[in-house]
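Recall that a protein's primary structure is simply its ordered list of amino acids. Everything else, from secondary elements to tertiary packing, is in principle encoded there. The following example makes that idea concrete.
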Amino acid sequence: MTLTHGLVESSQKLRAPVLSPVCSAATNVEVDIAPARFYECTASFADFNLYQTPAFNIVMGAAQGAQTSNIVVWRGGLPIGACVLRIKTMPVLGWGVAYALGGPVWQRPGATADDLSAVLQAIRTEYGCRRGLSVWLMPRLWAESPAAELHQATFDANEFKPRPNHAPARTLLLDLRPPVDEIRQGLHRSWRRYLLKAERNGLEVRTDCTDESFAAFLPVYAELKKVKGFHGVDGEAMRRVNAALPESLRMQVTLCYRNGRLVAGQIASHLGDTALGIIGAANAEGREYHAAYLVWWQRLLGAKESGCRWYDMGGFDDQANPSVAQAKLRMGGRVATFLGEFRYEPSPQRAWFLHKLNNLRRRLRRP
């Protein structure tokens, strides 16, 4: 079996630890292992993603005053699931939340709902029962999937309930499996027209994963945020995340130049079977010469060449940002709705208190 990113050539190279079983006689659990080993254990999961890397959670958790923990579940000598969680506790009371964005990951070849159930049980046992934390999970599962009802029932059977009064987020997924010509033909005719103009504008595109390229892109992104008046992703934090990742897992930085001047760029992560768009921007000159279209197209080609089957365009909100949403739709992707956020709560009283506290914090953050 060829595993993602070439970290290991065969899953047989991973040896299960000799530990006391948590979920069943055939299931063992490791907690808080070294990042390097975690990356090795998750190499075969199709749903492995940037948000489930120790690097992302350590960097983002430090800014929030949160600790980072991880868990790997084994069966039959192979890892069947894993999760990285950020843990935030309340002073004095000692209550806390263990939160996982994009996790758990468990979709390996031959995976079943029983594997997902074992992983959820291990997470609930370690963080909910043993540590007494509320556990909030937002997996990369889709409401449109034929298995959505089965997945939801599996969370429910393990006492993870959907977050109340919460509309799941949406994104756009573009299928990269067809031939390149077919993908290009699937672009809206106006999108293809702007792409053709960009290709004729003498633009130069370069891609690597270096810190120097990441740093060069950030002023372009900062300028766009200022012009458009949005908060966006913390580019400097993402730069620190990229520096902390193993080189083979680092984000791809695509930069576009005109006459030697940087005019546009995009940063994407190629983990698992899905490329994930993180940040994209073009300055005034880049917008004049339609550089973003060429950058997007090169990123799609790069993701396909790296073996990704899908491209997640990094969110879709046709209410708050209709122009960007329309541009993404015209690339031929389909709207995908996350299955939702699932929560295990040790007690209803604590769940009610944390819900009220989160609402208060959100109101205090509003300008």
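Residues 172-337 form a domain with the Aminopeptidase fold (CATH 3.40.630.30). The mean pLDDT is 87.
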